[in-house]
Design brief:
InterPro entries: DNA_primase_lsu_euk/arc. GO terms for molecular function: 4 iron, 4 sulfur cluster binding; metal ion binding. This protein is mostly helical. The protein has a single domain (13-226), classed as Transcription Elongation Factor S-II, Chain A, CATH 1.20.930. It is built from nine helices and three strands; from the N terminus they run αααααβαββααα. Helix 1 crosses helix 2 (52-64), helix 3 (69-87) runs antiparallel to helix 7 and helix 4 (92-108) packs antiparallel against helix 5 (114-135).
């Protein structure tokens, strides 16, 4: 559900290129109605949520967005919207399984910084709360009644600044109150914040040039940026 840990293993260069290009083409077709892209250009096996290929496409696009603010903003927004759209078609059992995988990946990553530890603790709280609502059968999918307040999340406002700025959520002692009827709306905002945060962490290390030094990534970057 949330991209925490890059997949391991090897992948053929041709498959990597198809995976990344399919993902960016889908974003262009779906969110910008780009006439230069058609459904025939897409290979949907690369877009199934939670798969290794899905994760590869996501993490590579993170890297390829580093050198362009315009591309970066487009990728961050598209990735969040894309995740929410796919969740709407999943059963409650599939959503619970994705949540379990996300939490497991948090536990499997290397030694986190203090800020990462705090962030990851909040992620676990959010997803455990959502998992409880799904397992209790109170929520069956993400097309839940928008007025429902049976379950609540209380989280630091910086995890969803966008909705706080729009005054769409209640703010109480530095925390926002998110009723279950607004979880889908919240998650899209939170997913954007998470991807933006992860990209900012890479940028803060000042090693963008070294990351994109591989000729294969340079070629992919040029393809993506020309899109």
């Amino acid at each position: 559900m949330l991209y925490i840990k890059p997949p391991r293993g090897d992948i053929q260069l041709s498959e990597l290129q198809e995976c990344v290009i399919t993902r960016i083409n889908y974003f262009l077709l779906r969110y910008q109605q780009d006439p230069a892209v058609s459904k025939n250009d897409l290979k949907f096996e690369y877009l199934q949520i939670g798969t290794a290929l899905d994760r590869i496409g996501h993490f590579i696009l993170r890297l390829l967005s580093l050198e362009s603010q315009l591309v970066k903003e487009f990728i961050i927004s598209s990735e969040a919207t894309f995740t929410i759209e796919r969740l709407e078609f999943l059963s409650s059992e599939q959503i619970v399984q994705l949540i379990k995988t996300t939490i497991r990946h948090i536990d499997e990553v290397g030694e986190p910084s203090k800020s990462d530890t705090l962030w990851n603790t909040q992620i676990k709280y959010i997803f455990n709360k959502i998992k409880s609502a799904f397992k209790s059968a109170h929520i069956r999918d993400f097309n839940h009644d928008v007025l429902c307040t049976a379950y609540m999340l209380k989280i630091p406002f910086e995890m969803c600044v966008g909705l706080v700025a729009k005054r769409e959520l209640e703010l109480e002692k530095g925390k926002i109150i998110v009723p279950c009827g607004k979880w889908k709306q919240f998650l899209q905002c939170f997913f954007e914040a998470h991807v933006k945060r992860e990209i900012s962490k890479i940028e803060s290390k000042g090693c963008v040039a070294e990351i994109i030094a591989d000729q294969r990534l340079i070629e992919l970057r040029d393809i993506v940026h020309k899109k």
